[in-house]
Amino acid sequence: MANTSSRTLRLLSLLQTHRYWPGPELAARLEVSVRTLRRDIDRLRELGYPVEASRGVDGGYQLAAGAALPPLVLDDEEAVALAVGLQAAAQGGVAGIAESSVRALTKVVQVMPPRLRRRVDALRAMTVPMVWEGTAPAADPAVLTGIAQACRDTERLEFGYSAASGERSERHVEPLRLVSLGRRWYLVAYDLVRHDWRSFRVDRITGPRTTGARFLPRTLPAEDAADYVRTSMGQVSTGWAVEVLVDAPTSRVQAVAGRWAGAEETGDGRCRLTMTVDSLDWPAMLLGALGADFEVVSPPELLDHVRGWARTFDRAT
Asked: How confident is the model at residue 98 (pLDDT cuts 50, 70, 90)?
C-alpha cells in the first residue's frame, strides 16, 4: 500500500476527473479500506479541497468547484498539453490572455521535470506555426519564460540584442516587466551599461541568462511598464500612424481594440480610431473584427492594404 502522501496525491488525481466516485470503488482503486478513504478525504478538505460526499448505499465522493483554484495534479500527457497550449496562447493575438499565459507557463515550466521539458521542446521544434505575411515575428516561449522568471526573482540578466539597424550588442540589465503590445513582447529593464531605462523587443533578444546577482527594483520614470513602452515607441517609432472613422460607438470599438488604440466620439454617430503600428495587418484585422463600415483617413497605404485583403477574400468566396 502506498504511503499516506503518495496515496493522497493519487486520490486527488482521481477526484480531479470530476466524475462521481462510489466510496467502495474509490477505496478499491486506492487499495485501502473505506474507513481509511474517509480519513484521506478529511485530509484533502483540511488542505482546502471542496470534496462533496453523499451517504447511503450508493454513497460516494466528488470534487466540487471551490472559491479558489487549488493545486492541480497532472499526469505526463496533461502537463505537456498544458505547456504547449500556454505557449500557443502566449504567442497568440487574443487580447487579455497573452500576459497571463506567460505567467502560468513560467510556473508550469519551473516545476516540470527535465524529461517532460524535453518533450515540450521537441514538440515545439517539430511544429511549424502559420504566420501571416507582414506580421510581427513571434517571441520564443522559452525566452519569454526565462525573462519572466528573472523579473519575478529580481535577478540581473545578460543577453544578446539586435537593434533595428542590425547592430548586435551584449546587454546587462535589471529586468522589471514584460509588456505585450499587439503581437509583440517588450522587456522593460534598467540598462546597467548605459545607465538608463530601456525597452527591448523580446524577439530580438538571444541567449538570455541570469547572473545570480539580485537587485532592488529602481523607480520607473513612468506610470507603469506599459506606459513606458508606449512613450518609448512614440519617441522612436518609424511605424504607421493610423486614423480611421468607424460607424460604431466608442465603447464597442474600444472593447475590441483594447488599450493599444484610442477611440473617441466624433459627434455624428461615428468614432475616430487612432493607433501607431509597425504592421498594417493589425489595423486591417481589427477593422474586419468590428464588422462596421469605416473610412480610412490615414495612411493611404492602409487603404491599399485593405483593398488587397478584400480582393483575396473575394476570390475565396
From this structure: low
pLDDT for position 64: 80
Q: Residue 205 and residue 191: Cα distance in Å, rounded?
A: 14
- The cell for 49 is 479541497
Whose grid coordinates read 520564443?
140
Q: What is the mean pLDDT of residues 63-73?
A: 66
pTM: 0.48
CATH of domain 240-316: 3.30.70
- Hey, where are the domains in the chain? 4-63, 74-236, 240-316
- CB contact set of 105 (below 8 Å; sequence gap of 6+): 83, 86, 87, 90, 141, 144, 145, 148
Sheet holding 205-214, edge to edge: 196-201, 184-191, 168-181, 155-162, 205-214
Mean pLDDT of the chain: 80
Class of domain 4-63: mainly alpha
Q: Quick one: pLDDT at residue 210? A: 92
